[in-house]
Amino acid sequence: MASAAEQLASSFNFGTFSKATELRKRIWFTLAALIVYRVGTYIPVPGVDASVMGEMMRSHGGGFLGMFDMFTGGALGRMTVFALNIMPYISASIIIQLMSTAIPSLETLKKEGESGRKKLNQYTRYLTVLIALFQSYGISVGLESMHGNLGAAVPDPGTFFRASCVITLVGGTMFLMWLGEQITARGIGNGTSLIIFAGIVANLPHALGSLLELGRTGALSIPFIIAFLLIGAGVIAFIVFMERAQRRVVVQYPKRQVGSRMFGGDSTHMPLKINTAGVIPPIFASSILLVPVTIAGFSANMTAPAWVPRWLAEGASGIASQLAQGQPLYMLTYAGMIIFFSYFYTAIVFNPEETADNLKKYGGFIPGIRPGANTAAYFDTILTRLTTIGALYLVAVCLLPQVLITKYSLPFYFGGTSLMIIVSVTMDTITQMQSHLIAHQYEGLIRKNRVKGRGR
User: Fold this and answer.
1) Between 87-102 and 280-300, two packed helices, what is the crossing angle to 10 degrees?
2) Contact of 349 with 277, CB cutoff 8 Å
3) How many CB atoms are closer than 10 A to CB 236?
C-alpha cells in the first residue's frame, strides 16, 4: 500500500485536475478576483499628483514607506484607491481577538459557534471602518503638506480633497475586505493572505530587476548577488522545512467489546506543528507597527502647524528615524511583537483543556499520562516549548535579512517577512487544492461503488 505522502503526490495530476470541475471554478474565481485587485492598485486617488508621489517614494522609500508599499503591492507609491490595502482589517481582527480574551461578553460570543462568529465578524467590519477613517484622514492631511522638487503632492488642497480622499481610501479597504471574504468562501486559500501575497509577488520582477541593476552599475558585485540569491533559496528551503516540522503525540484508544465484536485498541498520533501560528505573527506585527510608523513618518515629512508644540514635532521626527528599517528600536519592537503574537495566536487556535476533554470523551489517552487535567498540562507544556522554537524561528527569518537590506540597500521584497508570506501562502493554497482533488477522487469512487451495487 502506498504511503500517505505518495497518495497525496499522486492525487495532483492533470487528468484528475481536468475532471475536478468545482476546483477549476474556484481557481478561476480566485484568479479573477486577484486581477480585479491588481487593476485597483493602478486607479489613482483624485487630486494627487502622481509625479510628486513617485519622487517621495524614490527619496523616502527606504524606510517605512518602502515596507508599507510592499504590503500594498505598490498601491501606496502610486497613491491609488487601494493605498491602505487590507491592513485596517487585519488590525481590527487583532484588536477584536485581543478583546475577546479580556471581555466576558465577547468571549461568550466566541464560544457560541457559527452565530457568535458572525457577530464577531460584524464587529470586526465596524472597527475596520473606524481604523480606515482614522488612517485615511491622516494620509489626506499628510499629503496636503507634502512638497517635493516637482511641487505640491496635492495641487488643490482643502475640505473637498480630504473628503474625497477619505471616501476613496475607506471604500477601497472595504471592497478589499469583501473581496477577501469572497475568495475564502468561493475560491482557493485564505482571501486576506492571498491579497497580500499577490501584492508582493506582483512587484518581485521589478525588485529582481533593481537587484540586477545594482550589479550592472557596480554598486554590488556579481559574486555577492549570486551569494545573496543562494542565501534566499536556502531561506526558502528552511521555511518549508520548519513549516512542515511537527511533534507527533501518540494517542492510544482502549479496546471495547460491543456484543460479540471487539472494537478499538488502535494507536494513532496527534501532529503539533512547531510553528502553529504560521505566517500570522509577522503580518500582525507588521500591520500594528506600520500604524505609528506611518503617522510619525508623515508628520516628519510635513510642515507642522503653528499650534503644534516644537517638542511634539521633533518627537515625531525622532520616532520616525528610530523606527526606520534596521534601527535597534525597530528590530526590538518587531521581534517582541512577533514573539507575543506567536504565543497569542497559538493559544487561540489550540486549547489544551478542550483537546484533553475531547480525548477523554472518546476514550483516548496518552500513554503514561492520566486523562483530564494532567493531559491538558502535558499538551500545554509541549505547546509552550514548540511555540518558543517557532517564535525564535520567525524572529530569525524576519529580522536577519533586514541587516542585508539595510547595509546594501536591497529591495524589501527579498526580506524574510515577504519570503515567509510567499512560501506559507503557496503551501497553504496547494494543500487546499490537493484536498479538493482527493475529495473529488473519493466522490468518484463512491459513485462507482453505487453503480456496481445497483448492477448486482
Assistant:
1) 120
2) yes
3) 15
Per-residue model confidence as pLDDT tens for the chain (456 residues) = 343 344 444 444 555 555 667 888 889 999 999 999 999 988 888 888 877 777 776 665 555 566 677 777 778 778 889 988 888 898 888 888 878 877 888 878 877 777 888 888 899 999 999 999 988 888 888 788 777 777 788 888 888 989 999 999 999 999 999 999 999 989 888 888 899 888 888 878 877 887 788 788 877 788 888 888 888 888 888 888 988 888 888 888 776 655 666 555 677 788 888 888 888 888 788 777 766 665 555 555 555 555 555 655 556 556 666 666 667 777 888 899 999 989 988 888 888 888 888 888 877 888 888 888 888 898 899 999 999 999 999 998 888 767 766 666 665 556 677 788 888 888 888 888 888 777 766 666 566 556 555 555
383 contacts 276 by C-beta, under 8 angstroms:
yes
pTM of the model: 0.77
| Cα 302–Cα 321–Cα 93 angle in degrees, nearest 5 | 85
Residue-range domains of the chain with CATH: 15-455 (1.10.3370.10)
Q: Which residues contact 69 (CB under 8 A, 6 or more apart)?
A: 57, 61, 75, 76, 77, 412
Q: Which amino acid is at 124?
A: T
CB of 393 closer than 8 Å to CB of 414: no
